[in-house]
Amino acid sequence: MLDITRIREEGDKVRAGMEKKNQDPKTVDKFLRADEDWRAKTAAFDQLKAEQNALSRELSAGQSEDLLSKAQLLKKRLADLEAAQEDLKKKRDDALSRIPNIPFEDVPVGKDESGNKVVREVGKKPEFDFAPKDYLTLGEALGIINVKKAAEVSGSRFGYILRDAALLEFALVQLAFDTLVSKGFIPAVPPVMIKPKVYEGMGRLAADQKDERYFLPADDMYLVGSSEHTMGPIHMNEVLEEESLPRRYVSFSTCFRKEAGSYGKDTKGILRVHQFDKVEMFSFAHPEKSEEEHKFLLSCQEEMMQKLELPYRIVEICTGDMGWTDARQFDVETWLPGQGTYRETNSCSNTTEFQSRGVNIKYKTKDAAGEPKKALVHMLNATGFAIGRMLIAIIENNQQKDGTIRVPKVLQAYLHKEVIGNA
Fold first, then answer.
1. 195 assigned to some structural domain
2. pLDDT at position 130 over 90
3. CA 20 to 30 Å from 224, out of 132, 133, 297, 399?
4. What is the pTM of this model?
5. CA neighbours within 13 Å on the CB side: how many for 263?
6. What is the rounded CA–CA span in Å between residue 330 and residue 102?
7. Torsion region of 183: left, alpha or beta (phi above 0 gives left; psi -120 to 50 gives alpha)
8. CA distance 280 to 234
9. What does the pLDDT look like over 33-72, one tens digit per residue?
10. What is the model's pLDDT at position 74?
11. Is there a domain that residue 163 lies in?
């Protein structure tokens, strides 16, 4: 959630930030009205509570009909105020949940993805002496991807990853862990189910995000859409040592998304599916160094892309296309020759203190006078490898005329082969 004090004191800036993110700035006014009423009711409640405490002391010294009558009246007024206070708090919290993180001032302003800014292109696009095929045509011919049988078993937007493609998945996971653990990342396999209250704290049930989530009513639990969602709360309600920052994790998990907003898009294949595996980076950083940490996470993504020798570009996401929790976001888009376009394969986001406020993660520090205090950490996330999309990129960029697939050199030691073929 956004800082309530910031909304109160910098309402115009928050409204402007919401407009940049294509959100209704009137939500700020709804929040402020509910907040003002809630604070007034809270002050009145506290005043009556003080009167009740004073009256209790009088009653303990000696009861009278007047004092008892007054006590009953105070009790009823307190009950009415408490109910009104709770109702206003719900309205205030509802409005607060509809206010996203505010983008940094220098983030490109745009209404949608057309406003995104290409920062750089890296790598040479492959040249073929034949017409390149798309990954699904290649994968089905090699028997390493089967979406038809998956549709029979599970419905649309599922797929079987088979044979060398399955081995390629775990080679990618091992490459990511080998690369990142050597840099000090803590390896992790997090839960894939999360309590609603914690999910709300991570800002992942706000606005239309809830439409993306799979909810299990009998258990009152959600399936996560990314391991970020359960890695963020790993230090929930904790206070970290300042010297321990940044604290970095690399995790692997299966993820689940309804893809509610993508009807008609990428309905075939494994690009946009309901279930997928992903390696994720997550960092808890000092607020003064979170932008530096953001660049570091992006450099880790680029390092792994370069190890795979895949052509890609870095895109800074504009205000109208960036994530709900993000103050700044970069995407890695990889060239897919079978489709003749770049597609997003990785994202990298700085959520500042937006999520840490929701799950209460702080660090020990000192104020200007040198006195101890606690402050919210900044939280950042970045895709290591979204496995399905990386398989697509590897297959299309390394295809050969006979329909076989060259294994990237960096993965050959994991697969113990140089070519994926029919044999």
1. yes
2. yes
3. 297
4. 0.93
5. 2
6. 16
7. alpha
8. 14
9. 999 999 999 998 888 888 877 877 666 666 666 777 777 8
10. 82
11. yes
